[in-house]
Amino acid sequence: MRILIVEDEIKTASYLSKGLTESGFVVDVAHKGDDGLHLALTSDYDLIVLDVSLPERSGWSIISELRRQGKETPALFLTARDAVEDRIRGLELGADDYLVKPFVFSELLVRIRTILRRGPMRQPEVIEIDDLRIDLLRHKASRGGERLDLTPKEFALLSLLARRQGEVLSRSLIADQVWDMNFDSDTNVVDVAVRRLRTKVDDPFPKKLIHTIRGVGYVLEAR
Ligand code: CA
């Protein structure tokens, strides 16, 4: 598996490169945006890890140029803390995931392996899990053909769980992605929201889709 790292902070780049090499990946590094784009266009990588803020050309610009030229290499970008617009913009431009700096290497490795396992993520318009149907474009959800009346936050929570079905999501990850709350914030809000979501999505139906993994978080899957 080949990974391209585009990161202008020399220390971070070599730390990532060393860690990924030790984890069995073949790694190339670019420190500038133009070099990164050139490598990404002319070589075949399984994944690109790229910083948003780079000399010559931003990480966003690299992703959008790659996608414009039909290159679907999965991309995970590294962004500064608390930059919600950055994350949304990156995902809209075709990034597959993001990680907020500073992060621990093991978290990066988990994200990389997840992306590589599922392959390039082309956002589906509709997700179907058992008799649950989520229309991501129209923001509608139904079970067994019956419309679920969800608030925007409930819909966001359900979509997150459904997009990553079968994956156990921690409370802090859910809090971060749905509420943009920090790690140490009160994650009780997640438990309350999941409970409310269950009253609509699971309680009226014999087959339960949202499962609690004690001490870890939640997973949505048809068992
Ligand atoms: Ca940078």
Give unreliable regions as ranges.
none
Number of helices: 8
Listing every helix as H and every strand as E from the N terminus to the C terminus, the arrangement reads: EHEHEHEHEHEEEEHEHHEE
CATH superfamily of the largest domain: Response regulator
The CATH architecture of the largest domain would be 3-Layer(aba) Sandwich
Rounded mean pLDDT score: 88
**Which word captures the global form?**
elongated
What's the CATH topology name of the largest domain?
Answer: Rossmann fold
Strand order of the largest sheet: 2-1-3-4-5
What gap, in angstroms, lies between the N and C termini? Answer: 32 Å
Residue fraction in strands: 15-25%
Question: In brief, what are we looking at here?
Answer:
41% of the residues lie in helices and 22% in strands.
3D architecture notes:
By secondary structure, the protein is α/β, with parallel strands linked by helices. The chain folds into 2 domains: 2-118, Response regulator (Rossmann fold, 3-Layer(aba) Sandwich); 126-220, Winged helix-like DNA-binding domain superfamily/Winged helix DNA-binding domain (Arc Repressor Mutant, subunit A). Helix content is 41%, strand content 22%. It contains 8 helices and 12 strands. The strands form 3 sheets. A 5-stranded parallel beta sheet has the order 2-1-3-4-5, sandwiched between helices. Helix 6 (152-163) crosses helix 7, helix 6 (152-163) crosses helix 8 and helix 7 crosses helix 8 (188-201). Residues 8-9, 51, 53-54 line the site of calcium ion.
